[in-house]
Design brief:
This protein is of the alpha/beta class. It has helices at about 10-40, 50-60, 65-70, 95-105, 120-125, 135-150, 165-175, 195-205, 215-225, 235-245, 260-275, 285-290, 295-305, 310-320, 330-335, 355-360, 360-370, 465-470, 490, 500-510, 570-575, 595-600, and strands spanning about 75-80, 110-115, 155-160, 180-185, 390-395, 400-405, 430-435, 440-445, 455-460, 480-485, 515-520, 530-535, 555, 560-565. One of its GO terms (molecular function) is phosphogluconate dehydratase activity.
């Protein structure tokens, strides 16, 4: 269905940014498209395999599947899965291969699990050594995806992944096989538990020593209580928004709860769509062609409009590069200037993603953005039409048949979700900062306006544990800018610094002006404390953040978009960068295996990836 309210042209700024991305990327994008066109001309790979190769590929299949693969007439659908039953978000995927196989057979083909990719949980590793592998796991997932598809026996693929680094890694890997159609299949968020705001209060009380570990564990268990994605709007749920608004999900599929009849019906329908898009039929839709400059601009617009995860200032850049497209933080910043904030979902508000979905969800958001000319409607999607076809939501009829109905035209709860005309703020939730400390990003959507500018003396730390020790010792008093450095990708893999937020939140609640400046990450922990993150160049690369000393006055200005240090220029020029022994972060918990990654990784503003972006 096509909404008549969708304008035929996009907002001037959207068009301008898209055009400059096209111009900037022309050579790389052309080479990428030529490469996938050559791969597509070769036809389905398995039909050219030797007999022994093919026999290996279907040896374990049942008789009917084996007969189909021997004949070679139907499509073979590869399943790349991030299933494990330790991650609540991925546990529901255990049942998906059987659903997908049944749907593939009904469509006259076969589905096989092509391979698995690792899926770590940042919630389990936060504050622990394993978090230093988290960002690098994205590129490992991309590599594992390429290995899974390297058998060249598939005509299309479906990708089962949800959480933080997993979806971006799957996208990068899928784009390396850009001639294959691809559908991403979500599993949905867990049902609502303890409200996120209540959980945050318990965390702060624990940081102050006012409640014990038993109370903290009980609160966390009531919040994270069952199968499905964590319900706050961090990277995992931002991934789901992004896959839908970029056309890789079925319409309205992102936030349907796991293990429900509607969820199962959507999974089967996604497999059917993948089967229908192969080069064997008349509706060939390779992912490398679908994900063009317009699709990535739509993803950035969705990020701003929903107040999504700061991690995507890394991930979208890395994903685009895999498609031969060069995105920059300046593109993010210029788009943020014209995209309004339509959502208040924790940590930007009190609601969770189930409330967001019930209030109108993705169908409402896409309708509003299309109506304002803030999205490219004329993109390819896995559903078959343009993005205007995503202004609908899935439903089950009484007989169990899957269908779609028009998405809500009005928000069901304006405390959670609003239209463009009544937006929570006129500009997006992310801001680019630049100055004599380098470049950084800040998530402003959850920060009170009176805290958008912080000027205070620096306290320098080289780990989040150092800051916590200083807090517990009562050393952090008065206004301060906490500078936590040597946390970038070259230093230690750029971990998320979740443990910083409770003590800094306590200091802010005591009436102090508080901010954080770091070359590490925060993501879903980005909340009410102003935080300039992803500072680049990083300290381990000789960046200016390595020159800061205790007592230097640092100014973070999220209004003007600046990050500066108020030190005499002569004094600043005479300083040598700090050096620390990083060896303890390079050994143990598998970190010794990632030395090559730390040596090869690029800068935060180019996606912090080990893959070439030039």
């Amino acid at each position: 269905m096509t909404d008549p309210a969708v304008p035929s042209t996009v907002h001037a700024r959207i068009g301008e940014v898209t055009e400059r991305i096209v111009h900037r990327s022309r050579d790389k994008r052309s080479r990428y498209l030529e490469r996938i066109a050559v791969a597509a001309l070769k036809g389905p790979g398995r039909q050219k395999l030797g007999c022994a190769n093919q026999a290996h590929g279907f040896a374990a299949c049942g008789p009917s599947d084996k007969a189909m693969l021997r004949a070679g007439g139907g499509a073979n659908l590869g399943i790349v899965t991030a299933y494990n039953d330790m991650l609540s978000a991925h546990q529901p995927y255990e049942r998906y291969p059987d659903l997908i196989r049944a749907a593939a057979r009904a469509a006259g083909g076969v589905a096989q699990v092509a391979g698995g990719v690792p899926a770590m949980c940042d919630g389990v590793t936060q504050g622990e050594a394993g978090m230093e592998l988290s960002l690098f796991s994205r590129d490992v997932i991309a590599l594992a995806t390429a290995v899974a598809l390297s058998h060249q026996t598939f005509d299309a693929a479906v990708f089962l992944g949800i959480c933080d680094k997993i979806v971006p890694g799957l996208v990068i890997g899928a784009l390396s096989f850009g001639h294959l159609p691809a559908v991403f299949i979500p599993a949905g968020p867990m049902t609502s538990g303890l409200p996120n705001d209540d959980k945050a209060k318990i965390r702060q009380l624990f940081a102050e020593g006012k409640v014990g570990r038993e109370a903290l564990l009980e609160a966390e268990s009531q919040s994270y209580h069952g199968p499905g994605t964590c319900t706050f709007y961090g990277t995992a749920n931002t991934n789901q928004m992004m896959m839908e608004i970029m056309g890789l999900h079925l319409p309205g599929a992102s936030f349907v709860n796991p293990n429900t009849p509607l969820r199962d019906a959507l999974t089967s329908a996604a497999a059917e769509r993948a089967m229908s898009m192969t080069a064997l039929g008349n509706d060939y839709r390779p992912i490398g062609r679908m994900l063009d400059e317009r699709a990535f601009v739509n993803g950035v617009v969705g990020l701003h409009a929903t107040g999504g995860s700061t991690n995507h200032t890394l991930h979208i850049v890395a994903m685009a590069a895999a498609a031969g497209i060069t995105l920059t933080w300046d593109d993010f910043s210029d788009l943020a200037d014209v995209v309004p904030l339509l959502c208040r979902v924790y940590p930007n508000g009190k609601a969770d993603v189930n409330h967001f979905h019930a209030a109108g969800g993705m169908g409402f958001v896409i309708r509003e953005l299309l109506g304002a000319g803030l999205l490219h409607a004329d993109v390819e999607t896995v559903w078959g039409g343009g993005l205007a076809d995503y202004v609908q939501e899935p439903v089950l009829a009484e007989d169990g048949a899957l269908g779609w109905r028009e998405a809500a035209r009005a928000s069901g709860d304006e405390a959670v979700l609003r239209g463009v005309e009544g937006a929570f703020q006129a500009t997006g939730g992310l801001k680019l900062l630049a100055g004599d400390l380098g470049r950084a990003v800040i998530k402003t959507s959850a920060i009170a306006k009176e805290r958008h500018i912080i000027e205070a003396p620096a306290r320098v730390f080289h780990s989040q544990e150092e800051l916590q020790m200083a807090f517990r010792a009562g050393e952090l008093t008065g206004d301060l800018v906490a500078v936590v450095r040597f946390q970038g990708p070259k230093a230690n893999g750029m971990p998320e610094l979740h443990k910083l937020m409770p003590p800094l939140g306590v200091l802010q609640d005591r009436g102090h002006k508080v901010a954080l400046v770091t070359d590490g990450r925060l993501s879903g922990a980005s909340g009410k404390v102003p935080a300039a993150i992803h500072v680049t160049p990083e300290a381990a690369d000789g960046g200016p953040i390595a020159l800061i000393r205790d007592g230097d006055v640092v100014r973070l200005d999220a209004v003007a978009g600046t990050l500066t240090v108020l030190v005499d220029p002569t004094t600043w020029a005479e300083r040598a960068p700090a050096r620390i022994d990083l060896a303890p972060s390079h050994i143990g918990v598998g970190r010794e295996l990632f030395g090559a990654f730390r040596a090869a990784v690029g800068t935060a503003d180019t996606g912090a990836t080990i893959f070439a972006v030039a």
